[in-house]
TrEMBL record:
Amino acids binding substrate: R52, S82, G83, N187, S225, S226, K322, S341, V342
UniProt KW Magnesium keyword: yes
Binding-site residues, Mg(2+): E295, A344, Q347, G348, P349, G352
Biological source species: Candidatus Dormiibacter inghamiae
UniProt keyword Lyase present: no
Site positions per UniProt: Important for substrate specificity: H318
Region (RU C): 247-366
Gene3D superfamilies: Cyanuric acid hydrolase/Barbituras, RU C (3.30.1330.160), Cyanuric acid hydrolase/Barbiturase, RU A (3.30.1330.170), Cyanuric acid hydrolase/Barbiturase, RU B (3.30.1330.180)
Pathway this chain belongs to: Pyrimidine metabolism; uracil degradation via oxidative pathway; malonate and urea from uracil: step 2/3
Name assigned to this protein: Barbiturase
């Protein structure tokens, strides 16, 4: 089965799904065909970012009002919300729907892992649970060749003080003594699970000690987010189910925060022909969305120049990096409504990150 991606903006705030509802009531999106949502909200991107919850509720409410699926089915639709639209980034969602087109192209697979306990975060147990879920999501997408996977979006739990307390009641210690830093660690552990599930790395390359330390070991397609909303890994695999289709996806790897060429490489891999030195106008409105992970380079250098993101005590380096990379990608495609997420441990090379593009083939839209 093929899928289509639809970009939907938040016009009034994270609780406003009116633009989504307009697409549903107009028939552009059939609510019972919505399979997954990946979106950016305007919150702080931290543990207490309530905008993710508001957006999730608003979108599910639209599906409840206009679709025929029951409460359990609507609640089971994976919605991965990433908080923080720093700089020029715009709050938006990418809604994936099942399409009538049987010519393959863009395909989506979803899966949930076994429960991830607080003491699993940052350890190989979590890596293995995520890897198994990635395999299930690939099967759900109808993908047998791992090279056809171009993006794996996940949402996993992070540490809370209550979770740490429960682990100690069970006689277990968590990888960190408090929630600080657990977002990065959960994301990084998950990324290694994606890499293992896709065969990018071997099981022998992973142990508890290297997680969060051996940053040269990474996935080139993992985009991992974490929060307090769930207790297991929610996995959404995006790939191509075969040749053809109205939409296709491709990926590349940003080597650093300025690597605009990698965005065009992802677009080319998705199936668009571009000139040697492309610019946004060459895309002719065919790019549906771009997804990227990024972070401040841990060496505090960028192309030989000293950087101060990691030294700033007023603004967290996550927000610096997101704003900077968001501007680079927005300029590349001529659209500030792109998905850029931070906390990219084990997701692409240190200081860089994976990038993917979904494109629309055929005649450009009017």
């Amino acid at each position: 089965m093929s899928f289509e991606a639809h970009k939907v903006v938040f016009e009034q705030g994270p609780a406003d799904a009116s633009e989504f509802e307009k697409l549903v009531t107009s028939g552009a999106i059939e609510p019972d065909r919505v399979a997954a949502v990946i979106g950016k909200t305007e919150g702080n991107g931290g543990v207490n970012d309530f905008t993710r919850i508001l957006a999730d509720r608003a979108f599910r409410d639209v599906l409840r009002r206009h679709g025929s699926r029951d409460e359990v089915a609507v609640a089971a639709i994976p919605m991965v919300w990433s908080g923080g639209t720093d700089g020029v980034l715009c709050p938006h969602a990418c809604v994936f729907t099942r399409a009538d087109d049987k010519r393959a192209g863009l395909t989506v697979g979803i899966a949930m892992s076994d429960e991830i306990l607080p003491e699993d975060i940052g350890r190989t147990t979590m890596v293995e649970k995520v890897a198994a879920a990635v395999g299930s999501a690939m099967a759900d997408a109808g993908i047998s060749d791992r090279s056809d996977v171009h993006w794996v979006q996940t949402k996993t739990p992070l540490l809370t003080m209550e979770g740490i307390r429960q682990a100690r009641v069970r006689g277990r210690e968590t990888a960190l003594p408090d929630p600080h830093g657990s977002m990065d660690l959960s994301n990084g552990t998950t990324a290694l699970g994606v890499a293992l599930g896709l065969g990018e790395i071997q099981r022998s390359a992973i142990d508890d000690y290297m997680i969060g330390r051996a940053l040269d070991v990474f996935s080139s397609v993992a985009s991992c987010s974490s929060g307090v909303e769930l207790d297991r890994a929610q996995v959404v695999v995006l790939g191509n189910g075969g040749p053809g289709g109205r939409q296709r996806i491709g990926h590349s790897v940003m080597r650093d925060a300025l690597d605009q060429d990698s965005v065009y490489s992802a677009v080319r891999e998705a199936g668009l022909d571009l000139p040697d030195r492309p610019r946004a106008a060459d895309l002719e409105g065919r790019v549906v969305n771009v997804f990227a992970k990024c972070e401040a380079d841990p060496t505090a250098r960028l192309r030989g120049r000293r950087q101060v993101m990691l030294d700033d005590s007023d603004v967290h380096h996550h927000r610096h990096a997101k704003a900077a990379v968001g501007a680079v990608i927005a300029a590349a495609v001529g659209d500030p409504a792109v998905f850029v997420s931070v906390a990219a441990m084990h997701q692409g090379p240190a200081g860089g990150g994976p990038v993917a593009a979904i494109v629309r083939l055929g005649k450009p839209p009017a």
